[in-house]
Specification:
Blueprint (H helix, E strand, L loop, with lengths): L2 E5 L5 E5 L4 E2 L6 H11 L9 E7 L5 H12 L3 E8 L5 H4 L4 H4 L6 H9 L5 E5 L2 E7 L11 E6 L13 H10 E9 L4 H9 L3 E6 L6 E6 L2
Parallel strand pairs: 4-5, 4-8, 5-7, 8-9
Antiparallel strand pairs: 1-2, 2-3, 6-7, 9-11, 10-11
Length: 220
């Protein structure tokens, strides 16, 4: 599938899949979307805590890198698991401008280590952040009550509806600890119905730039 690196409206870059006309992040702002959906409406709910995070769609590592930066401000200790079936190649990753756009040059080595580390092995990035990248299809996830927070950042329902099925959300529900949260940029009715069917309580929240709404789901 033909791919190109494009600049989004906030100046940060993303990967565009031409055949699907689908991007890894919002064209309206990759960094803005990550900050709004996953940090403001997810990570920030757990200040001064140890937090286990499962990311569905590790992709370019943007969400993981922003989480690393923000967790230091929130006094958190993070265990981060990123699941990706088709890893992004190194030439694309290192063409991303996230380090500069996030004013994170002192942490550049962390971003590089996130991508240079081996798959399916835990790496300690510092005393408060552990990362495991799992090369895995989403329907192969079998975790049970291991996570406090899920970043659900799969490709959109329009191009991969199977990733937003009741079966997948059942796996997400099972993977969360009681009281855990799942946040996603999505706000389709069919997605909400699948979440509710497996037991989630779903909130509709204001979306990031370019999207009116988003969902946050809670496990009772």
């Amino acid at each position: 599938m033909e791919r190109e690196i494009i600049q989004t409206l906030d100046g940060s870059t993303t990967i565009h899949l031409k055949e699907w006309d689908e991007c890894y992040h919002s064209k309206h702002g990759a960094i803005q979307e990550a900050q709004h959906v996953f940090i403001q409406n997810g990570l920030s709910l757990f200040p001064n805590q140890s937090v286990s995070i499962l990311e569905i769609g590790f992709g370019t590592g943007l969400n993981a890198f922003i989480t690393f930066l923000e967790s230091q401000k929130l006094n958190q200790s993070i265990n981060y698991v990123g699941v990706e079936a088709y890893p992004v190649n190194a030439s694309e990753v290192f063409a991303m401008n996230y380090v500069d756009e996030l004013n994170a040059v002192p942490q550049k080595a962390i971003f590089e280590r996130m991508h240079e580390s081996k798959w399916n092995e835990k790496v300690v990035l510092n005393t408060d952040f552990e990362l495991t990248k799992r090369k895995q299809f989403f329907d192969e996830i079998e975790d049970s009550e291991q996570f406090d927070l899920i970043y659900f950042d799969a490709f959109g329902y329009r191009v991969q509806p199977e990733l937003w099925s009741t079966a997948i959300f059942q796996k997400m529900y099972t993977a969360l600890r009681p009281g855990g949260k799942l946040v996603t940029y999505a706000a389709r009715g069919v997605v909400k119905r699948s979440m509710i069917e497996v037991g989630f309580t779903v909130e509709k929240l204001p979306g990031p730039p370019g999207k009116r709404e988003m969902f946050r789901a809670s496990k009772g």
